[in-house]
Amino acid sequence: MHWDILATILLTATIQSLFGVGVLLFGTPILLVLGYDFITTLTTLLPISLAINLLQVSKDYRQIHLPFYRQILTLSIPCVILWLLLVTTRKLNIGGIVGVFLIVAALKSVYPPFQRVIESLVRYERTYFVVMGMVHGLTNLGGSLLTAIIHSKPYDKDQTRATTAVSYGTFALFQLLTLGLSLGPSTIATPTTVLYLAAGISMFLGTDLLLYSKMSTDRYRTTFAVFLFLSGTALIFKSLFLR
């Protein structure tokens, strides 16, 4: 067990326990900066992300917005699979663009022109879902676009987290299946992976009990907006300084 990976998992699992995303969105750049290759990063983080999402969905599955999820399945997932298969041959640095988009999404409630920008982009939902799948397959940053479009919907906190979790979990599931078929199951199922998985699940249970259950919908949406802003800032920083 690597202690730097464990610390990353505990931090990002806390974030994902609240918002439905985080382990991949933040864990991927952290582990890459620490010197781990992209495939190792994926095979370490994907099972944890999927497990947390499954626990979230099992509690709030009635809150899932099914029309939104159908678009994930039909438009995003095929792109995730296709672009993940190409990930070792081409790498695109689009973190800065995604980061700016997240900051605009976070500030839309306090600056009306940003609200109009988000509405104009989200209006083309089919294209948005396709691009989101491409981005996730290539970079593991599709969770950032997912949280942005979810934040534009009038969901309460349970529907927000449940819809995010089932969508993000589906991303992780198909990524794992793709990697398992292309690299072999032994690449993913290792004793160390089980230990990391146990740590991530434990952090979810604690966060869900101590933090999430005590948040009102208004406070959750405000915290979610702060999360989007910090995500965007982190992605811009990574794009500019951590190439």
The total tally of domains equals: 1
In N-to-C order, the SSE pattern is: HHHHHHHHHHH
Number of strands: 0
Distance between the termini: 27 Å
Mean pLDDT across every amino acid position: 81
Strand content: under 5%
Which overall shape is indicated by the principal axes computed on the Cα atoms? globular
Query: Could you tell me the radius of gyration in angstroms?
Result: 17 Å
Number of distinct helices: 11
Helix content: over 70%
Largest beta-sheet characterization = none
Would you summarize the structure shown here?
This protein has 243 residues and is mainly alpha-helical. The chain has helices at residues 3-19, 23-33, 38-60, 66-85, 95-106, 112-122, 125-139, 142-151, 157-183, 191-210, 217-241.
Outline the fold blueprint:
Layout: H1 3-19, H2 23-33, H3 38-60, H4 66-85, H5 95-106, H6 112-122, H7 125-139, H8 142-151, H9 157-183, H10 191-210, H11 217-241
Helix pairs in contact: 1-2, 1-3, 1-10, 2-3, 3-9, 3-10, 4-7, 4-9, 5-8, 5-11, 7-8, 8-9, 8-11
Provide a descriptive summary of the structure in words.
The chain crosses the membrane at residues 6-26, 33-56, 68-87, 94-114, 126-150, 162-181, 193-212, 224-242. Helix content is 79%, strand content 0%. It is an all-alpha fold. The protein has one domain (3-241). The longest helix is centred in the C-terminal third of the chain and has 27 residues, at 157-183.
